Every structure is written in C-alpha cells, then in structure tokens.
C-alpha cells in the first residue's frame, strides 16, 4: 500500500516532464506552419524511419485572418476560438495526422495559445479561419464562447492595458502581451474552456503541449489547468501517461520572473542555450568552443531534466522574442550545422530541432522588415504543400533543416547515445573540441582557422566507421570520410578548416 502510494505520487510528479517519446527516440522537430496532410506524410516517409520522436505543430485552433500585412505567420498566435480549423487543415485532417504519426511512433506536440485571444484593437468581424465572429469592442468570442467577464482588464493596472514594464510581475501576467486580449485564467469558466480544448486534443491522441507565453500566465493558474488534463490515449500510450508539458518562458537572467517559477508544472524552454551557443560558435565576445567543457548547469542553465533546448525557434530566427543577434539559423548554414550537431551530441536537455520556411530577409536599420512573412502559400492564402526533391531536400521555399544529412544523422547519433554520459572530453584551449558518449559515439569539431590532425581516444570498439557528417554509411561502404578506431580505442581525425563541414561524428551503428 505504502509502495503504491509512493509510486502514485512519483508518477503524478514526474509525468509531465517526460516527453513521452517512443523508446529509443530522443528529439522532436518543429514543423513550423506545415499542413497536417504534409506532416502525416512526413511522419510515415521520413520521421519514423529516421528516429525522430515527435513533431511540434503550429497552433491548430481557429485564428484571426490578418491581411495587413498579408497573412503573416503570427496571425496564428491570435486565437478566435478552439475549433480545430486553420490554414494547416481542419479537424478531420488533424485526426488523420495524429493517427498516422502515432502509428509510426512519431508523436504530436501542440502549440497551445491559452494566455490570450486576438489583438485588442481588431474590432468586430468574422474574418477568421473558420468564420467564427468576434468583437474586441465588447470583448466577445461566441465561438468559445468568451465574454467581457473572461478577460483581465480589471486586474491590469497600466494605463494602456498593455505590459509596459517587464520587471513588474503583476503587469507581465495581468496585462496585455503585445496588446493581445488577456484571459482571466483564475476563472473556473475560462479554465474549463481551455481544459476542454486540450482534453479534446488528448483524446485524439496528442502527446503533449508547448504552452505559449507561459511567462504571462500565473504559475498557479497553469498548474490548475495542467492538473485537470486527462491521461494520454491508451490506444498509443501506456496507462496513466501524463501529457508532456513544456512552457515557453524567456529567461535570459535578470527580470522579475524566473524559469524556476515553472519547474513544478513541466519542462521549460532554456533560451540561454541558443544565445550562448551562437556566441561561442560565432566566436563573439572572446568566446571559444573550449568553454563548452562544462556546458549545461555549469553555465547557469536550469537542471537538465527541466530543460527543453534548441538552437533557434520560430521567433528568434527572425528577431522576435528573446535571444538576440547571436542566434544561429539556416541562413548561416555552416555554423548552424555545427551548433545543431553539438546540441544533439551533448547530453544536456530535451532537444528540439527547428524546420523552417525561407523568406527574403531585408534589414533596414538593423531590423528585418520582412520578419512577418508567412509560409509559402498561394494567392488565395492557402499554404503550399511541401514538395520533396529527388535528393530528399524540400522545394517551394520549405527549408527542411531536419532533412539536412548532418542534422538527420545527428538525431540518430543522439538516439544511439541515449543514456550515456559525456566522456573523453578533449580541447586545444581554442575552438577544437571532441567528446564521446560512453562507448557509443564520438564527435570532433574544428572551428579554428587552421587544419587539425590529431589522434584521440574515442572510447569506441575497434573497427572502421563512416563519418555521418561528410557522408554516411551506405551498405558496407561510406559515402564520406572513414575513421579507423584501433584496438586501444584511439583514432586519427583530420579536419581541414576548409572542409564543407568542419566536424566529424561516428557512432556504433555506422561501423562497416
Ligand atoms: C502591435 C504593437 C503594440 C500595439 C498593437 C495595437 O506592437 O504595441 O499595442 O499593435 O494593436 C503581433 C504584431 C504586433 C502587434 C500584435 C497585436 O507583431 O506588432 O502589436 O500582433 O496585434 C507572435 C509574434 C508577435 C505577434 C503575435 C500575435 O511574435 O509579433 O504580435 O504573435 O500575432 C515575449 C513573450 C513571449 C513571446 C514573444 C514574441 O514573453 O511569450 O514575446 N513568444 C510567444 C510566441 C510568439 C507569439 C506570442 C508569444 C504571442 O512564440 O510567436 O507572438 O502568442 O518575449
Ligand atoms: Ca496573462
């Protein structure tokens, strides 16, 4: 009985931190603005076979249609109702996606926008993705329904009604973020509408939620909502599995709100990760890769079992949200691949890979005036399908970083190394570093402006391995470099600073 109680307690407090990925899978990918049909295909043809654990999807609930500017990606962060009905697809398409992805062991994580509805200056109309009406004049959203009782106006003490000072916790949580209509999440009624929405998604079979703008939600309100969520659908998940919760809180140090305010509820986004890693790999501010030796908590990051980590996200890849100029993206492909490979090789945190659409950046006085541009789409506003080229890359403006050989192969590296400690660290005091993961994998970086020719202890069993960065294993041969590990575990690595990618990685599954 006592044991059962302990088990129950344990289960109830560890549940929402567990990403629920299928055994042997360790990363998710954000398929930003993809259509549900395309995600279903991608699960079956690519993500399942290549060991991806899941997909973070764009918000599936009805949103405001914005035409000035013309259909920006950020219209999806202005909810009108909780009907599953967006440019990505309708409810049937959503269900089909969840079923097909789950059936191949790739789970769906929903971006839940629950802090607010649309912008407060929008007015009255029904220009929304499912045609539901709204009026910000009398604060009414009949598609939910919400009325003027359900917003925070009375609690917010600023004269504009917007957040004016980020150091004032009350403002940050009670006032309007970016002027978006702020929901009163302490109200039973509002909590009920949100839990109904999330529980409906759980019944369909999703595995968890990204909680958008968590910093702007009182932790006790979020805790109340999370505790009312149902267990996951047992058609795909073990009995009493809790939905995975990861909360978007931008905490780069300083400010009144800390990521630790949210540790009891679920995991939290670690925004320091991408900012610092970008600086290191760009070698800004005198930073060097040798400093990565104590990466993780040693850098003042949150505990690894609370961290959701990423190199860039849909906001900071285009200058929104937090992170700053150091953030690496697909625009800096060579450095970006190093950053993502480092993240996937290193044991810290639960990893999310970004998969973007491209847009024509246009910096005017340091700001990209095209930061609003939405996904590849037709003149009528519908989002374009993601076409797959013969070489397995994507067309029509979809970048598909997750399909870049180096990134896809490192997702597999992480699966192979799962549970293994960081071992055999080596660095030259500058920007050449190497480390292993137990005796399962080894990675070497040369981010210095000179060539590297060195013999290192890899910890791997003797044999010939295919480098998964310059190529990969193809039957019994390698399409790129070969690395020979001798009987004492050492191997010679030659990496020129002019190599297409100045790093090498090998693991147990690419031995020939
Ligand atoms: C503008 C002015 C306001 C003015 C208002 C008048 O900026 O000062 O009062 O008009 O109506 C868009 C526009 C923004 C506009 C706002 C309201 O960019 O200019 O306000 O709409 O109409 C995304 C975009 C935002 C966008 C929002 C809603 O990034 O630009 O706002 O969607 O469409 C903080 C938070 C963090 C947040 C981050 C961006 O702590 O939580 O800012 N990140 C998440 C998401 C992000 C999303 C939101 C939160 C909001 O990752 O994508 O914002 O859901 O750091
Ligand atoms: Ca709020």
Q: What features would you describe in this structure?
A:
Helices cover 21% and strands 21% of the residues. It has 512 residues and is an alpha/beta fold. An eight-stranded parallel beta barrel has the order 1-2-5-10-11-12-13-14, surrounded by five helices. A four-stranded antiparallel beta sheet has the order 17-18-19-26, covered by helices on one side. Strands 3-4 form a two-stranded antiparallel ribbon. A hairpin with an 8-residue loop joins β7 (124-125) and β8 (134-135). α2 (36-47) packs parallel to α3, α5 crosses α6 (219-227) and α7 (271-282) packs across α8. The chain binds ligand QV4 and calcium ion. Residues 74-75, 77-78, 113, 119, 121, 162, 177-180, 212-213, 215, 248, 250, 315, 320-322 line the site of ligand QV4.
Give the arrangement of secondary structure elements.
Blueprint: H1 2-14, E1 27-31, H2 36-47, E2 54-57, E3 61-63, E4 79-84, H3 91-103, E5 107-112, E6 116-119, E7 124-125, E8 134-135, H4 169-174, E9 180-182, H5 188-204, E10 208-211, H6 219-227, E11 244-247, E12 267-269, H7 271-282, E13 307-309, H8 333-345, E14 350-355, E15 363-364, E16 367-368, H9 405-417, E17 422-427, E18 432-437, E19 441-446, E20 452-457, E21 463-466, E22 473-474, E23 477-478, E24 482-485, E25 490-495, E26 503-507
Parallel strand pairs: 1-2, 1-14, 2-5, 5-10, 10-11, 11-12, 12-13, 13-14
Antiparallel strand pairs: 3-4, 6-9, 7-8, 15-16, 17-18, 18-19, 19-26, 20-25, 21-24, 22-23
């Amino acid at each position: 009985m006592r044991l059962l109680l302990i088990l129950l307690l344990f289960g109830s407090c560890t549940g929402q931190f567990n990403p629920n990925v299928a055994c042997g899978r360790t990363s998710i990918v954000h398929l930003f603005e993809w259509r549900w049909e395309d995600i279903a295909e991608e699960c079956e043809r690519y993500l399942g076979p290549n060991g991806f654990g899941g997909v973070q999807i764009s918000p599936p609930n009805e949103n405001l249609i914005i035409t000035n500017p013309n259909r920006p990606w950020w219209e999806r962060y202005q909810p009108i109702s909780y009907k599953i009905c967006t440019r990505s697809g309708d409810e049937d398409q959503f269900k089909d996606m969840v079923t097909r992805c789950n059936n191949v062991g790739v789970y769906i994580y929903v971006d839940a926008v629950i802090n607010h509805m649309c912008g407060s200056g929008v007015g009255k109309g029904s220009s929304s993705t499912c045609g539901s009406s709204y009026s910000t004049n009398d604060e009414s959203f009949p598609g939910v329904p919400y009325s003027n009782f359900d917003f925070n106006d009375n609690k917010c003490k600023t004269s504009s009604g917007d957040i004016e000072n980020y150091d004032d916790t009350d403002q940050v949580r009670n006032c309007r973020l970016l002027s978006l209509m702020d929901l009163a999440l302490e109200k039973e009624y509002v909590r009920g509408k949100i839990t109904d929405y999330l529980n409906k998604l759980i019944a369909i079979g999703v595995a968890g939620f990204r909680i958008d703008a968590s910093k702007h939600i009182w932790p006790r309100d979020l805790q109340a909502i999370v505790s009312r969520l149902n267990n996951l659908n047992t058609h795909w998940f073990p009995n009493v599995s809790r939905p995975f919760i990861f909360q978007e809180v931008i905490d780069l140090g300083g400010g009144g709100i800390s990521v630790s305010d949210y540790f009891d509820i679920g995991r939290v986004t670690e925004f320091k990760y991408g900012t610092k890693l970008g600086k290191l790999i760009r070698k800004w501010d005198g930073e060097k890769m040798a400093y990565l030796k104590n990466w993780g908590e040693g850098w003042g990051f949150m505990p690894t079992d609370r961290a959701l980590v990423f190199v860039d996200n849909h906001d900071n890849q285009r200058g929104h949200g937090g992170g700053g100029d150091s953030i690496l993206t697909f625009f800096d492909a060579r450095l970006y691949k190093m950053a993502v490979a480092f993240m996937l090789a290193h044991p810290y945190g639960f990893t999310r890979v970004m998969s973007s659409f491209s847009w024509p950046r246009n910096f005017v006085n340091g700001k990209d005036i095209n930061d609003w541009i939405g996904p590849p789409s037709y003149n009528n506003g519908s989002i374009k399908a993601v076409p797959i080229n013969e070489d397995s890359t994507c067309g029509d403006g979809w970048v598909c970083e997750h399909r870049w050989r180096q990134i896809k192969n490192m997702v597999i590296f992480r699966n192979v190394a799962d549970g293994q400690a960081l071992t055999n660290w080596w660095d030259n005091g500058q920007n050449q570093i190497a480390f292993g993961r137990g005796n399962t994998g080894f990675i070497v970086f040369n981010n210095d402006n000179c060539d590297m020719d060195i013999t290192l202890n890899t910890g791997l069993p003797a044999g010939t391995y295919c480098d998964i960065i310059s190529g990969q294993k193809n039957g019994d041969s390698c399409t790129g470099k070969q690395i020979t590990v001798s009987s004492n575990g050492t191997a010679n690595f030659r990496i020129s600073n002019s190599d297409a990618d100045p790093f090498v990685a090998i693991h147990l599954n690419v031995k020939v």
